[in-house]
Design goal:
The structure is a homodimer.
Chain A lengths: L16 H13 L4 E8 L8 E2 L3 H10 L4 H8 L6 H8 L6 E4 L5 E2 L6 E6 H6 L1 H24 L4 E4 L8 H14 L3 E2 L2 H7 L9 H6 L3 H11 L3 E4 L5 H15 L5 E6 L4 H14 L6 E5 L4 H9 L6 E4 L1 H4 L9 E8 L2 E2 L14 E8 L2 E9 L7 E2 L2 E5 L2 E2 L7 H13 L17 E3 L1 H19 L4 H4 L1
Parallel strand pairs in A: 6-7, 6-11, 8-9, 9-10, 10-11, 15-19
Antiparallel strand pairs in A: 1-5, 1-12, 2-4, 3-5, 3-17, 12-13, 14-15, 14-16, 17-18
Helix pairs in contact in A: 2-6, 3-4, 6-7, 6-13, 7-8, 7-15, 10-11, 11-12
Chain lengths: 461, 461
């Protein structure tokens, strides 16, 4: 059976069928005017901020978007697509403009993280893929930012590949976590692709295939001087004592950099292990912890003053276990110069092209204002043009290191209380400009009037 | 920046660094004996059963596993790998045996879903990828099975790609959900790759770009006779009345198959929409629902007797939102003919090669027994040899349709009370054979004695 790998050749089909059926309808109806779509998150759901991420993956997709002959051949086997439309699809490219809040920037509900301005079919087709990438990467970056904050400057590395939701999650989680500040990953391919340091220790199986734990420890340390030993295979503190004994016996031939705790009451074990190491002359050996860690577990261990120097964080970060998705949407805001929206008390959207301005006081963010895009405002505009006519601008070619630096700098500007792991009762203020509120209100009235019109066949005729 | 696509050429690097550092150590220490590793789930965590899934992806990976020159070149840039080891890696292939419980089979905690019997380095390296695929696909199939049960025979289709965790999740979720019984997917690429029917309706944007909702409805229905109209863009019931009016006006030129509800109190709206449709002569038009659906929301709507004919299920299925990961592990059970295990009250594993026997009464499953692999037992053995010497056996070449049929048949054998969406207080009995318990107990004693030995340098020397 096919492995189902996604790549630049088949990514155009990685979309919802309705995008293609709508495209054929647009094509047939001549609906090729300029559309504006916003990608935003409706609610933060117990997060105090999000970290925008995923833009680079989106821009790569847009640059390479095309329907291969194989894709067209497949579509021709479906009953609903007409040859003339498929012929048109064969020349389909993304040639629109994209405005985005840079990766690594704190963002909030209702703020367009991405705004696409393109002929309607182009802006429509990309919805599914764009949401898929931005939703997960922003979710991961936001979670990782919390984990890193909880670690209070200690090293955080990613160990999550084995339980992440598939291979692409395995790759993109590393990228997004790195933007947010993790230092390394166990994922070798992600380390290669994104230029990060790969990192790792040893597994229980390595210890178990040796008849004696000390044999495993000494063989591994000899091959990898400065390595980290996993100490919880049989009895954690006994293994720490063994480490000390091996050091006494082998001296410089047994150079260990750290021990790794992976189960039990790790705060308590860290305290006891620290004493054993220090009394054994291994003050320089660090203690790292892994196993079901997230920001809450880390905060709890550090509140207990656990002498832990670093954390390997896996499943709960990599699946964003407490919030495995964001309430992200991609909504039409304007078509042919006219504002558009869905009418709904809970699921509406802000109409028209927009800008987001951020205001600072003494180097700290104090409020954002969402405005119409051409409305004069003070403050720092957040949406930047990252793609023009289907090509990346300078602002669209930010490196991963630059995005990471931007995240670090931006987080220093975040009000302290938003860094709390608990949901704040003083959410960051995001205002809507007077003019945008007026547009919204006028459009709501207009749409409500139209929706409530008595419906009978003669109205339609 | 690189898109980070995974494929057969680079999948060997999609592993944790420690697998490779352990491999080099095994290579150097001559640890090349036969190892047995089990993949199992420690706890079901409020699921009453799981549906095994992901095996086909694993077997494809194992068949194609190799280190490309590009991969070797990358590894040679890392400080810890020696040329002799990389030379050995260049010839690395998976040539072991794999035993598995077939995809689509209900499985429970502690039962090996997969058992790998191979030279230690081969069995070790694959851990990360194998867990990545089986964990997610089994999680999805298990969740989808609940959703389908809740739908009581109504159509369930997948709409989840946009918020799934990356592109591979988008693909594999479709495959796993299809094994569990969904009927179609909105994901065009997955439909192509796995041979499923793609399905879809229209988005709010399609309605919004038309100045009148009726124009959108009539244009779409003309192009796609029998289509599904999305009715909640402005006012759901008004849109349903409009549908009736268009039918009266246009007759056969307006052939609608269904309407889709996507927001609001959908059970209530379905009742009201049904009345409007029926009174308008559209008794044949079906009602489908989508929007934040999972097994609980579906069960609640059907408990209110909502006249809904089908469900489009997205985010909450695709991210397994209530349980985004399984407590899956891949543990060494035997090396060089000797049973192995980790010593831990909460994280131990059953040692040695094993088999799982399932017992039936009157066509229903009544209990499973985990035994040593060569222990005689009644019952039906679940672990089948799916790969021998690195090549798939007949049992390893099951088609997707066969796996789906097997899931359907197997679920009919499940005790009814396990189908409850709530956690049962009568979990399915999984016993451990007397002989296996004796092995476990003997090994625990042996390892505890060894772990508690007084540690001092002279012990080691």
């Amino acid at each position: 059976m096919s492995p189902g790998w996604v790549n630049d050749e088949n990514a155009a089909l990685l979309t919802d069928l309705y995008q293609l059926t709508m495209l054929q309808a647009y094509h047939r109806e001549g609906l090729n005017g300029i559309a504006v779509f916003d990608l935003f998150v409706r609610r933060l759901r117990e997060r105090n901020y999000l970290i925008a991420c995923g833009l680079d993956s989106v821009l790569h997709y847009l640059e390479h978007l095309h329907f291969s002959q194989e894709a067209l051949d497949y579509l021709s086997t479906l009953p609903m697509f007409k040859p003339e439309f498929l012929d048109w699809l064969s020349g389909f490219r993304f040639e629109g403009d994209v405005y985005a809040i840079p990766e690594g920037t704190p963002v909030f509900a209702d703020e367009p993280i991405l705004q696409v301005v393109a002929p309607l079919p182009q802006a429509q087709l990309i919805e599914t893929f764009v949401l898929n990438q931005i939703t997960y990467q922003t979710g991961i970056a936001s979670k990782a930012s919390r984990v890193i904050h909880a670690a209070q400057g200690r090293t955080v590395v990613d160990f999550g590949l084995r339980r992440m939701q598939g291979t692409d999650a395995g790759m993109k989680a590393v990228r997004a976590s790195y933007v947010a500040g993790i230092e390394a990953t166990s994922n070798v391919l992600a380390a290669k692709v994104y230029g990060l340091p790969p990192t790792g220790t040893m597994a229980h199986s390595y210890v178990e295939v040796h008849d004696l734990e000390e044999d495993a420890f000494s063989a591994f340390a000899e091959l990898y001087p400065g390595t980290t030993l996993l100490v919880d295979t049989y009895d954690t503190l006994q293994a720490v004592r063994r480490t000390v004994a091996l050091h006494k016996l082998l001296g410089d031939r047994f150079h260990v950099g750290a021990i790794r705790l992976d189960s039990g009451d790790m705060a308590e074990l860290a305290h006891e292990a620290r004493i054993i190491l220090d009394e054994g002359g291994l003050e320089h050996v660090k203690i790292v912890a892994s196993g079901s860690l997230d920001e809450f577990a880390i905060a709890e261990m550090l509140a207990r003053k656990a002498p832990i120097d670093g954390f390997g964080v896996g499943t709960k970060l990599g699946t964003v276990a407490d919030r495995p998705y964001l309430d992200s949407v991609y909504k039409l805001a304007e078509y042919n110069g006219k504002a558009r929206m869905k009418l709904s008390k809970r699921k509406s959207n802000l109409p028209g092209r927009k800008q987001v301005y951020r205001f600072f006081e003494q180097g700290r963010m104090v409020r954002d204002v969402i405005t119409a895009y051409d409305e004069p405002s003070d403050g720092t505009p957040l949406l930047q043009c990252v793609m023009k006519g289907g090509r990346r601008t300078a602002a669209g070619t930010v490196t991963l290191e630059q995005a990471r630096a931007h995240a670090r700098d931006s987080l220093r500007q975040l009000p302290d209380h938003l860094l709390s792991l608990e949901e704040t009762d003083r959410p960051y203020p995001v205002e809507v400009s007077h003019r945008l509120r007026e547009t919204l209100s006028r459009l709501e009235d207009e749409l409500e009037a139209k929706a409530s019109q008595i419906v009978n066949p003669s109205d339609i005729a």
